[in-house]
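Bumping with the actual sequence this time:
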Amino acid sequence: MAASKDPRPCSIADTLALVGEKYSLLVLREVSLGNGRFDQLVRNIGAPRDILAARLKRLVDAGILTKKMYNERPQRYEYLPTAAAWELYPVLMTLMAWGDRHLRDHGDRPMVIEHACGNDLVPVMTCSACGDAVHHSDVTAHPQAPGWTVSGPAPTAA
C-alpha cells in the first residue's frame, strides 16, 4: 500500500498561503480600521516598504483588497477592503481575542473593540443553522478529498 506523498488538500493551507505571510493579516487589521494609505500602513505595521508593497499587490491580485487613487501627481493609492476581506474580519477578531487571553497580562489589551450594543466584543463561533456556540467537541470532520480520511491518506490497494 502506497501512501500519498502530497499533503492533505486543505482550505486552511490554501488560505494561509495567501494571508498567512508576515504582515498580510496586519494589513487587513489596518484597512479594517480605515488606515489604507501606504504611509499609514508602513507606520502602523512596521513593515519594510518593499515587503509591504509585495503583500499589498498580492492581496489586490487575490481580490481581498482594492486600490483607489487619491492623488494623481504623484500617484498615490488607498487600499480598501473588499467583501472577501470583510469575511476575514471574524478571523482577525478571534486572533486578537486569543492573543489578549494567552499572550497579555490580564487587562493589558492594546485595543478594545466595542460592539454596537456598547459592550466589548468577545467573538464566539456559532452554528449558522441552530445558533448554538460551537466547541471542538461538538463537531465531526468528514473529509471530502478523494483518497483521504481524517487520519490521513486512505490505504490504496497494491
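The C-alpha cells above came from a reply further down the thread. The chain has a mean pLDDT of 93.
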